[in-house]
Design goal:
The structure holds 2 protein chains of 2 kinds.
Chain A (H helix, E strand, L loop, with lengths): L8 E5 L4 H9 L7 E7 L7 E5 L2 E5 L1 H4 L3 E5 L2
Chain B lengths: L2 E11 L5 H9 L3 E5 L6 E8 L4 E7 L11 H10 L8 E9 L3 H12 L5 E6 L1 H6 L3 E2 L1 H8 L3 E3 L7 H13 L16 H15 E2 L6 H10 L5 H18 L2 H21 L4 H18 L2 H17 L1 H14 L5 H9 L4 H6 L7 H10 L8 H12 L4 E2 L3 E2 H26 L10 E4 L7 H35 L16 H13 L6 H10 L5 H9 L7 H15 L2 H13 L4 H11 L3 H29 L2
Parallel strand pairs in B: 1-4, 1-5, 5-6, 6-8
Antiparallel strand pairs in B: 2-3, 3-4, 7-9, 10-11
Helix pairs in contact in B: 3-7, 5-7, 9-12, 10-11, 11-19, 11-22, 12-19, 13-14, 16-18, 17-23, 17-24, 18-24, 19-22, 20-21, 21-22, 24-26, 25-26
Classes of the chains: A alpha+beta, B alpha/beta.
Chain lengths: 74, 621
């Protein structure tokens, strides 16, 4: 589940589904990477803009919710 | 002595890494756009001349994040790099990296190294990266990567000339890379680990490096303000198209008027004078006038793309697009289609899902492209009174705006219906990178405009001139009999063709004169204005006078219903041959362009018929 306000740091663990996962990996969403949710879309706070490995990735909630994350203090 | 070399330079890099700007600097105006053999993706190439005088081809590959292709664009980049197409030469890869986002771009550089080809790394946007406090040690980076690393904006010696030194070295057969064995980092995770290792040695980056992008996004991606800002930007864009273009359009009109008068006085009256003045100058001139509007529209699109905002627009619109079965990415090609459907259709290549891409292609021509403007302006000035309503709005302006909106709403409905019926696919994903904001490189923007102007002028000089001449001939010959009672044109070939088609379009309130103009209008929409001008046999050469007289003539010749029906016809009518040719190229079959033609023709016919019948019912014919 992806939740929380911007500046919550989360750390990832592996997800599934090859094609989508490959694309996420290319964009830097690798296991163990730190992610930070920065912006939300207008309707239903969807999609979300996530800061990961020096860049910002826009991703829909349904896809993001399949990534396991754990919250990092700070 | 110059010879064509068997060496090729491939520019590869992530989207937004400034690849095209390096390509423009490297090759200057010596560029050509063609197709890759066997596939129909645009192949952008240019040349550089090496020090030994041989001409080396430079190919600007489509942007890609990795060698695992996720879209048609990436697939082409992969195929060229792995030499399964276009494979007749020694390749040197110039890996373009973005100095402001090394974490992302270096991973692709490492993947390119697995190909085992000579590589030079070109670091773009070093100035921007330095201004953000990022320090990159180029010599250490070069050592760690085992490839030469150049900065494209190096201070002491021009980075481009260093890159050219490497190209010369490559062409003369000297080795480029110190480490010859290819990288063995095959999977993404180990590559990112390697990137982290290299960057810990070569880069120091303050945590505030992308503060500017964050601050701008706080406003532009604001949960409430983002949509009003997007619509305000679009409003400014369309407003500017009309406001800024007014003066240059008057200059062009005046110039054409002077030219027409000049030719009329220089040449004796007769059919040659008529051909040049009424056929060529009036026909080509009536289209040339719209060059300023088209360029301003493209200027905005290029600025939005180069600044990084275009991807934000995709982000903002994703949820809305999702409700009609599309996604945020579809918004970008559709916005471009307001300038012209052709670059719009080509921009759909970044959409991964084939059916989503197809629907976006099919609805792109419903966006009000710049070629419709001449027709709209003519018909609105003829049939819509120039009066103020509700104190501030101009009725003609509202009508123009309404036509734009009507096009958008129809596109929404068509997309929704197609996604629900024949082009279903499971809910796709939306995953894009939002690049950091940057001030657009004006040299690149103007280069893009120059290319658009060239394409447009070429079309005016060939297609539109040809159609104008053919129409003039058809409208002039055969000459009417001496005891003619009707206007001369009704005895001509054009008149006969128009009268043959007339019964088909009569239910729409169209007479034979419109029917005559509809035929060449299929080649290009804006031809309709010149065609009607010729058909109405307006002798005036001054463009302004021609449009006003023409609109007066239309007003007296047709009832309101006919005028409105023709406007509605133009929202939908399947037009501009070039659009269908591009759709054919992009979908690789005639099936979809034919479908696009049929559904648009059906909408145009039904829409125009309903408009004419309703108007006649309420206002009277």
């Amino acid at each position: 589940m992806v939740s929380g306000e911007p500046n919550n740091n989360n750390s990832e663990t592996p997800a599934t589904d090859t094609e989508q996962v490959n694309k996420m990996l290319d964009l830097g969403m690798i296991p163990g990477a730190e992610v930070e949710i920065r912006h939300f879309g207008v309707f239903g706070k969807d999609p979300i803009a996530v800061f990961v490995r020096g860049g910002i990735i826009a991703i829909r909630r349904t896809d993001a919710s399949r990534i396991e994350v754990e919250e990092i203090q700070g | 002595m110059t010879t064509t070399s068997s060496h090729t330079i491939l520019l590869a890099g992530c989207p937004n890494s400034g690849k095209s700007s390096l390509f423009n600097t490297l090759t200057g105006s010596k560029q050509k756009v063609g197709n890759y053999p066997g596939v129909t993706i645009e192949r952008k190439s240019g040349t550089v001349t090496s020090s030994n005088g041989s001409i080396v081809e430079v190919i600007d590959l489509p942007g890609a994040y990795s060698l695992k292709p996720q879209s048609i664009d990436e697939e082409i980049a992969f195929k060229v790099l792995s030499q399964s197409i276009d494979s007749n030469s020694n390749q040197l890869i110039v890996a373009v990296a973005d100095a402001t986002n090394m974490e992302r771009t270096l991973s692709f550089v490492l993947e390119l190294k697995t190909l085992g080809k000579p590589i030079v790394v070109a670091l773009n946007m070093m100035d921007l990266s330095m201004s953000r406090g990022i320090k990159i040690n180029l010599s250490k980076l070069s050592k760690e990567l085992g490839t030469p690393v150049i900065s494209t904006i190096a201070v002491k010696k021009n980075g481009i000339s260093i890159l050219k030194d490497h190209i010369n070295q490559f062409v003369s057969g000297q080795p480029i890379n110190k480490v010859s064995n290819p990288s063995t980092l095959k999977d993404t995770e180990s590559r990112f680990a390697e990137v982290d290792r290299i960057l810990s040695i070569c880069q120091s980056k303050p945590s505030t490096a992308d503060m500017w992008t964050y601050k701008i996004d706080k406003v532009l991606l604001h949960p409430v303000l983002s949509i009003p800002i997007l619509f305000l930007l679009m409003l400014i864009m369309f407003q500017s198209v009309f406001a800024w273009a007014e003066a240059p359009m008057t200059w062009i009109e005046d110039g054409i008027g002077v030219l027409g008068t000049l030719v009329s006085t220089l040449l004796p009256a007769g059919w040659i004078q008529s051909l040049i003045v009424d056929g060529i100058i009036a026909g080509v001139g009536s289209v040339l006038v719209f060059l300023p509007q088209i360029l301003i529209l493209f200027l905005f699109i290029l600025l939005l793309e180069n600044s990084g905002y275009m991807m934000r627009a995709a982000f903002i619109m994703d949820r809305i697009m999702a409700s009609i079965g599309l996604q945020g990415r579809s918004f970008v090609p559709l916005l471009s289609s307001f300038a012209c459907a052709i670059p719009g259709i080509m921009a759909t290549r970044t959409i991964r899902d084939p059916k989503e891409r197809l629907v976006t292609i099919l609805i792109a021509p419903l966006m009000t492209c710049s070629a419709r403007l001449p027709v709209y302006v003519l018909l609105i000035s003829a049939f819509i009174p120039d009066q103020t309503v509700m104190g501030i709005f101009n009725l003609q302006g509202i009508t123009m705006f309404g036509l734009f909106i009507f096009g958008i709403i129809s596109a929404v409905i068509v997309a929704f219906v197609m996604r629900k019926t024949m082009l279903q696919s499971k809910c796709s994903s939306f995953l894009i990178e939002l690049p950091s904001y940057k001030i657009p490189n004006m040299k690149n923007v103007f280069f893009g405009l120059y290319i658009r102007a060239k394409v447009f002028l070429k079309k005016a000089g060939t297609l539109i001139m040809g159609v104008s001449v053919v129409l003039w001939v058809l409208a002039t010959f055969p000459k009417p009999p001496i005891d003619a009672v009707e206007p001369a044109i009704s005895y001509s070939y054009a008149g006969k063709i128009g009268k043959t088609i007339e019964p088909l379009v009569a239910p729409l309130g169209f007479d034979w004169r419109i029917a005559t103009g509809l035929v060449p209008g299929f080649a290009a929409r804006e031809v309709m204005v010149g065609a009607l001008a010729t058909v109405f046999a307006v002798e005036a050469t001054d463009e302004d006078e021609q449009i006003s007289t023409l609109s007066e003539q239309l007003q007296s010749a047709w009832p309101l219903g006919t005028g409105l029906a023709l406007l509605v016809w133009y929202i939908f009518s399947p037009q501009c041959l070039a659009t269908f040719v591009v759709a054919r190229k992009e979908t690789n079959s005639w099936k979809w362009p034919l479908f696009m033609f049929s559904y648009m023709l059906a909408l145009a016919y039904v829409g125009a018929w309903a408009t004419y019948q309703l108007t006649s019912f309420f206002v009277g014919a």
